Amino acid sequence: MFSLKNILGRLITATVVIGISLTAMQTTATAGELPPGAHRIGVLNGDTLLVKEGTLFATWTTQLSGVQKFEIAGDRIGVLTTDNKLLVKEGTLWTDWTEQATGLKDFRMTANRIGALRTDGSVAVKEGDLYAHWIEQTNGVKDLELTATRVGVVFDNGLASVKEGNLHANWVDQIGDVADLELSADRVGVLRTDGSVLVKESNLWSDWTAQVPDVKQLELSGSYIGVVLNNGLATVKEGSLYATWVNQVADVQNMQIAGDRIGVLRTNGTVAVKDGGLYGAWTEQMNGTRQLQLAAPPAAAAGRHVSAADLVNIYGSAYATETVAAGIPSLNEQMEAAGITSPTRKAAWVATLKHESGFRYNAGEAGSGEFYKGRGFIQLTADFNYRAATNYFGHDFINHPEDAAKIEWSAKIARWYWTVQRNINASADVYDMGGVGRAIGYHPRLDPTESLNRCASYKKALAYFNGGSLPVPEASIKCLR
Q1: 37 and 51 in contact (C-beta within 8 Å)?
Q2: What is the bridge-based pairing of β-strands 252-258 and 67-73?
Q3: pTM of this prediction?
Q4: Which H or E element spans position 255?
Q5: Could you say which residues of the chain have pLDDT below 70?
Q6: How large is the angle between the packed helices 343-356 and 308-315, nearest 10 degrees?
Q7: Which of 162, 257, 333, 454 is 20 to 30 A from residue 478's alpha carbon, by CA?
């Protein structure tokens, strides 16, 4: 079901091998996430926070007064009070607030992290529940951003820097002259002091792609890039960094994107939100507003990525097993984090996993009894790769290599290898399955037909995710390593 890899080939390239199982669609939310359908909209009217949950026509629920700014992330709501205290609640709209910190000028949240920017410019981040310990990050900061796997800051001198992995990871400087930094999935975006926007994707060392000039606000969310131009026009693109902009509405001071919702706060204080992405219809929400925030359930819960039924439809009933289904929620979560959301990226991912592990999170390398044998969706192999994963995640895979084949780690390791160790999305974007194979690191001498077999699996998945046909001529798909 999965290919045997040559350890010498991986020693040359320091390759971690990936084999991943894809999950049946989540029907319930995990801790910190909203369940399917439970979208949230929050507005700040004066100093009073109101939030609604569900459809665009749901009823507003008053949360708190004395608020200067707020954030919504998953089922968490955080507020910075007028006396600079950070309060956070999680769960329903009616749960109690928990005081987190004092003396703040700003903060950011994800479903599993809270970041505090103090009035003295220092930054601390906590991960886990609301009672986790703060971990100091850096000083001299004017802007802070968070995702589930990255922490980004803009220093007072305009330098943007990002770290990835655990909260003790090293900072990687990005670019200077930055007014605002945005992070989403595998993308980093900057709004520079001259009003220009640059975005990069995959790993922190990727090249920047220029987007548009004369911008006053930048918003990244999943595969969306949104900007508000200096003239007040909100425009959004979806898909690759080279996609076409689609104008939304004029007279906008701020835009928010979450899931398939787009919301705007106009210069006159009115708020409108639409479902359905770029071409949905606007629904008016509120007047007299000075801040807007949106939150959406994970894309996996909404069925945007891969299900167990998808795998069976593409590759047959051999993959209709409980083990495959058990791994699918974690894989969808990591696909979202890695930006594996387009048809070609999903096809490259599932074709790779089919041949690496047969979509089994607990797969082990066949015929190998070594301590650091291949394990998991990715087939993490050799001591140097276990050490690299240990350094990235802050989890001891060196002394506990068996953990790489556990459901809580397999998909995370796969995502790490796909985006951090290698820039595999870039090969998928240009329909280069041979390039995907080179990055994965299987040894073609063991089976001369391996590249063609993997490419055949890719083409099947690509046609499936593209609605039944290939999006490009078959001759333009590169198969050989």
Answers
A1: no
A2: unpaired
A3: 0.72
A4: strand 252-258
A5: 1-31, 298-304, 366-368, 443-448
A6: 80
A7: 333
